[in-house]
Design brief:
The protein has about 325 residues and is of the alpha/beta class. The chain is built from 11 helices and 14 strands. Bound molecules: 1,4-dihydronicotinamide adenine dinucleotide and oxaloacetate ion. The site of 1,4-dihydronicotinamide adenine dinucleotide has 28 residues, from helix 1. Keywords: NAD, Oxidoreductase, Tricarboxylic acid cycle.
């Protein structure tokens, strides 16, 4: 049996927390031979604390053999001390009358303080996924607030967008998701994202030879880009099970490797494809040996270039807006 690793989850009393924690404890994220110690960071308010107490009682009641430790705290340093993996799910949701700038500012404070705490006390090899929205910019803030950690420790969740994209292609072609490869989603986790099938294959054939260009442009791209708000409309609550599943997929592949499969991750740009260095951008990546590489050498037509420019401009404007609140 391996030595236990420490996994910190923020917002554990929320919807995505509930769909993620039990899978982490069961071994779905880090493998069936990897024991975990869970550290749960929640807000101090009594409703969240009461819900968290219930979640922890259920975690105990599952009697997971791999769950070697379970604690909750409202102290960030206690939550992140020596942590190996951090899932930053808790964030301030948009309230009535709140402008986008107010949302950015509220979250900027949260991810600034969490980034500083990670900087001070987390393992130097920590792997961080930011799920809480706006996740790319929140990940950028946390990364900038943690100058002693490698920028490669930080990522944002775009895997849900990639999973949605593969699922739409599966539905349209009748091929199982496992026969669909090299689907990419570029940019921001927002309606400006660019779900891209130009390198994708279905049963070994080029997706663009099978699928109509008009379907890709008029149905596929908008369906994936607006899926989050469609789910909120249908369910009366945002995606939680699928978001939790995507967070598990993202961390599992990063930690254990993606076996050559392209996985979309929001990662700090290294300048690839002309994206300014440091901006947390959705790229197709391949994971191996606990690290990721951005897939290189892809080409874009004019329409794709315009879509990438649009999502990039949005991310730059978010970054500039939060720079005004934080001294980064
Ligand atoms: N990147 C992605 O693909 C997706 C991101 N999301 C985002 O994930 C976030 C969480 O969603 P849900 O779980 O549905 O929300 P929720 O409202 O059910 O739960 C959020 C939890 O976070 C806690 N929290 C808030 N601020 C915190 C802080 N500073 N420290 C610790 N805990 C804190 C709250 O008390 C609550 O328990 C939202 O920002 C949502 O927009 C949701 C779906 C997909
Ligand atoms: O806007 C939200 O909270 C939900 C979201 O990100 C998604 O489902 O992609």
């Amino acid at each position: 049996m391996k030595t236990p690793v420490r996994v910190t989850v923020t917002g554990p009393a929320g919807q995505i927390g509930y769909s993620t924690l039990f899978r982490i404890a069961s071994g779905a994220m880090l493998g069936p031979d990897q024991p975990v110690e869970l550290r749960l960071l929640e807000r101090t308010n009594s409703t969240s604390q009461s819900a968290l107490k219930g979640v922890m009682m259920e975690l105990e009641d599952c009697a997971f053999p791999l769950l070697h430790g379970l604690m909750s705290t409202t102290d960030q340093k206690e939550a992140f001390r020596d942590t190996d993996y951090a899932l930053l799910i808790g964030a301030r949701p948009r309230g009535p009358g709140m402008e986008r700038a107010d949302l950015l500012e509220a979250n900027a404070q949260i991810f600034n303080t969490q980034g500083r705490a990670l900087d001070e006390v987390a393992k130097r090899s920590v792997k961080v996924i930011v799920v809480g929205n706006p996740c790319n910019t929140n990940a950028w803030i946390a990364m900038k607030s943690a100058p002693s950690l490698s920028p490669k420790c930080f990522s944002a969740m775009l895997r849900l967008d990639q999973n949605r994209a593969r699922a739409q292609v599966a539905k349209k072609t009748g091929a199982p998701v496992s026969h669909i490869h090299q689907v990419a989603v570029w940019g921001n986790h927002s309606p400006t994202m660019f779900p891209d099938l130009s390198a994708a294959t279905v049963d070994g054939r080029k997706a663009t030879d099978i699928l109509d260009a008009a379907w890709i442009r008029d149905e596929f791209i908008p369906t994936v880009a607006k899926r989050g708000s469609e789910i909120i409309k249908a369910r009366g609550a945002s995606s939680a099970a699928s978001a939790g599943a995507a967070a598990i997929d993202h961390m599992r592949d990063w930690a254990l490797g993606s076996a050559g499969e392209w996985v979309t991750m929001g990662v700090p740009s290294d300048g690839s494809y002309g994206i300014p260095e440091g901006l947390v951008f959705g790229f197709p990546c391949v994971c191996r040996n606990g690290d990721y590489d951005i897939v290189q050498g892809l080409g874009f037509d004019d329409e794709a270039k315009a879509r990438i420019a649009k999502t990039l401009a949005e991310l730059e404007s978010e970054r500039d807006a939060v720079k005004a609140f934080l001294k980064l």
